[in-house]
Fold:
Amino acid sequence: MGKRFENKIVVVTGAAGGLGLTSAKAFAREGAELVLLDVNAAGLADAKAVVDDYGQCTTHAIDLSSGAQIEQLGALLSQQHERIDVLFNNAGIAYGEINQMIDSVDLDRLQMYFTINSFAPLMLAKALRAPLAEAKGVVINQSSMAANMPSTIYGATKALLNQFTYAMASIFGADGIRVNAIAPGLMETPASSAALPEETVQRLRGMQMLKTLKGEAEDIANLAVFLASDDARFITSEVICCDAGCTLRGWRN
Ligand SMILES: NC(=O)c1ccc[n+]([C@@H]2O[C@H](COP(=O)([O-])OP(=O)(O)OC[C@H]3O[C@@H](n4cnc5c(N)ncnc54)[C@H](O)[C@@H]3O)[C@@H](O)[C@H]2O)c1
Structure:
């Protein structure tokens, strides 16, 4: 089978490690030219070295909490690339505070959380709309199963991201752009392993229908590649869980 993303440009945010880097590698293996974005410049350089082994790749350090930086980079990328085929809005903040309730943080922290997890994906997609439209491209937002538990601040940010996914699909659909979200369950990444206590890991795994399975970054990368491919050409405005049956388990039983 031929490579599905030859001559296609794929932009991945939060690409310095974890789910973003693994997804970038998966797209590169399919022939894509990658544009990797992250606030972590050193991590981005390491990621480039990894992705370069699979295909062509450029990087830009950007703080996605800055609207000005998003606009600036959006303009630059739109100038450099007439077409952008895929935007994977994967960057997000979570760990250490994943179980923190919405009443236990101050306004600055709340604003930062929503700015990075909910607003930045929308603003970056808006900034790249012209080249995405030219390609009849695809936007994928990295949500979370936590969106179904919105009493936590993290869950609330991802619930809003789901709403923005539906809204973006509706508005950008006029340009032929598809917009979907992925809602991962617990996936093994350096960030999740470092931050979640073993007790939380066991509790989350206990909520899965497939109890013995450990979610891996490749599970998300495979889904992102599918959603971005022509095999998913009739799918838009969906939030797709990839969580071994963890989310809404109670309702489906
Ligand atoms: N790992 C999981 O179990 C899991 C589950 C559900 C959802 N998610 C989501 O998947 C995404 C990736 O998670 P991960 O486990 O790979 O974590 P990670 O921390 O390795 O990845 C997040 C990346 O986003 C970058 N980032 C953070 N703030 C930024 C900013 N202001 N500007 C630019 N980049 C910024 C980080 O530097 C990091 O490289 C996140 O959105 C997370 O919420 C992860």
In short: The chain has one domain: 9-243. The first strand starts at residue 9 and ends at 13.
